[in-house]
Amino acid sequence: MAGCSRTASASVLLLFFLFGFSAAKELLVGGKINAWKIPSSEADSLNQWAEKSRFKVGDHLVWKYDGGKDSVLQVNKEDYANCNTSKPIEEYNDGNTKVKLDRPGPFYFISGAKGHCEKGQKLIVVVMSPKQRYTGVSPAPSPAELEEGPAAAPTSAVSVLQSGLVPALGLLAICVGFLI
Ligand SMILES: *[C@@H]1O[C@H](CO)[C@@H](O)[C@H](O)[C@H]1NC(C)=O
């Protein structure tokens, strides 16, 4: 029975690692340097990029742009829709802006450069609620995700853990069978 409880706790630990812990990533907005600009077409827009990406609580968005010419404004939904740059929630113009996605839900960003937002330089990022991670739906990692040293490593650890999940759950089921 001791063996069984050990297996059970190992399985719980495994589930915790799979679902509770998931590596935070840094996502380069637009997938490349200097993507923070007026899009040349609808297909080139940052929202097209955002729709293909996956954002989790704890991830960071990173913008690389010329801080002398442009800025990143985090705004509310209304100011996003109206391209109103007068009262942003946050304003960044350092050319290397990093914003932590610290809650689920939508984040709205517009360019602070005059007339740019109206021409489509804007971005909505919708961060998944932690619950959504439990569905097990896991799209292929986006190429836009920055493969940065230590941040990238835990991803492969997760796939290693995933391969161990089925046998572990099997053992757990056997243990539960014994207990009943
Ligand atoms: C922009 O927002 C400010 C403050 O929220 C508001 O006073 C102003 O009327 C808005 N401007 C436009 C053009 O919507």
Give the overall pLDDT as a whole number: 77
CATH topology call: Immunoglobulin-like
Q: What is the CATH superfamily?
A: Cupredoxins -  blue copper proteins
**Secondary-structure arrangement, i.e. CATH architecture:** Sandwich
Evaluate the radius of gyration.
21 Å
Strand content: 15-25%
Q: How are the SSEs ordered, and which strands pair?
A:
Elements: H1 2-20, E1 26-28, H2 46-52, E2 60-64, E3 72-75, H3 77-82, E4 90-92, E5 96-100, E6 105-111, E7 122-127, H4 149-179
Parallel strand pairs: 1-2
Antiparallel strand pairs: 2-5, 3-4, 3-6, 6-7
Helix pairs in contact: 1-4
Residues 82, 84, 86-87 line the site of 2-acetamido-2-deoxy-beta-D-glucopyranose (NAG).
Structural summary, described in words:
With 180 residues, this protein is α+β, with helices and mostly antiparallel strands. The protein has a single domain (2-179), classed as Immunoglobulin-like, CATH 2.60.40.420. Helices cover 35% and strands 18% of the residues. The protein contains 4 helices and 7 strands. It has helices at 2-20, 46-52, 77-82, 149-179, and strands spanning 26-28, 60-64, 72-75, 90-92, 96-100, 105-111, 122-127. The strands form 2 sheets. A 4-stranded antiparallel sheet has the order 4-3-6-7. The chain is elongated and about 65 Å long. 2-acetamido-2-deoxy-beta-D-glucopyranose binds at residues 82, 84, 86-87.
